[in-house]
Amino acid sequence: MKEPTARELSLEILLSVTSGQAYSHIALRETLEKYAYFEKGKRAQIKRLVEGVLENMLLLDEIIGQFSNVPVKKQKNVIRNILRMAVYEIFYMDGIPTHASVNEAVKLAEKKGFRNLKGFVNGVLRNVERNRDSIVLPESLSVRYSMPEWIVDRWTEAYGEAKTEELLKSFFGSQPLTVHLTKQPRPEEAQEAYAAAVAAWEAEGVKATSVEAIPGAFFLTGVERLTAMQTFRDGLFFVQDLSSMKALSEVPAQPGMEVLDLCGAPGGKSLFLAGRIGHKGSITCRDLSENKVSLIRENIARCKLSNIHAEAADARIFDPAWESRADLVIADLPCSGLGVLGRKPEIRYRITPQEINDLAALQREILSTAQRYVKPGGFLLYSTCTITHEENEDNASWFCSAFPAFTQLKTQQLFPEAATQDGFYYMLAQRS
After folding, report:
1. Which helix (H) or strand (E) holds 210?
2. Domain 176-239 falls under CATH 3.30.479.30
3. What distance, in Å, lies between the first and last C-alpha atoms of the chain?
């Protein structure tokens, strides 16, 4: 059987993502794992095409719409995504000759069973190619940054146009992988431990840069496949968002603490705290499905940690065994995900205002249960990876009003920063 081309595989991923059947980061990872034997350049092309099309989809559709007699929304999904890929190549991938982008798109349309639309694909793309330097785009943040207008309007109202444009820019470009060492060395041994980790990564062709504000945290660049790294398989480190680490660093973790981590898959927050509470402490890390819990267990086993236990549980349903028991409850709850668009660009095209309201209500339902698990003097950390008042500030205010036994110690919206962190919100509260 003939080996699939990078464009064919990119198209398959885009079709599954744009039809709502998959998330891009998962579909990409699975495809690149399946075709791990591909040469590096071909794998990079797949990643660039998929991420580039999804990041710029509204802009690409605007360009296509100017040269198509069929509205983009009425085009067949296969044709629409073939055109998007080719237009992205024409405008953003200088190493590919434009005639090759056009010809390959036409061939791909025929290969996918649309021989009768070869002329249409060719005509649209030839027009785009001829007119690329004279195309006039609307002066709109929505089109320029491929963000639905209702989201742009919300952020502009909340943060102003300048801050909103900063936010939109931050979602473009590749982010380094942010990781944390599994073992927390004693202060006097830290420098030696960090140097050893950096040397081990360099031996694998990966560059590591320490995160000054968080001991044990590093940015890794040059990671092609995480699971191919021996240091990862050996449990030297785990992946953790920088924003999440910053929030967890606010928690007064002490040796011997008993922690309940709700909605915890794949377990990064629990792994981060495991070294801080020591072998005398314990963490119960939960999530809704056995499939998600299996991800937690994989990380626990890989990192060889004995003070974390994973189990499946519905965070909305009260568990009397935990009433007033936990020193710390972590509630990193389901949210709209508008803070992680740099890694999951398709979220912007799927989420609706009503879903944001529904998620905010779900969060309040879980928080109402979660607060019952905190012992007097204990702490609750509520967090999301989004940028909406309903899911963040509004819910934090509601919580402290509904449960006056809790004192709000700190709240912070961490906005995404290009190539460093995702958007994140957290509230740390203590029960009297």
Report:
1. strand 207-210
2. no
3. 67
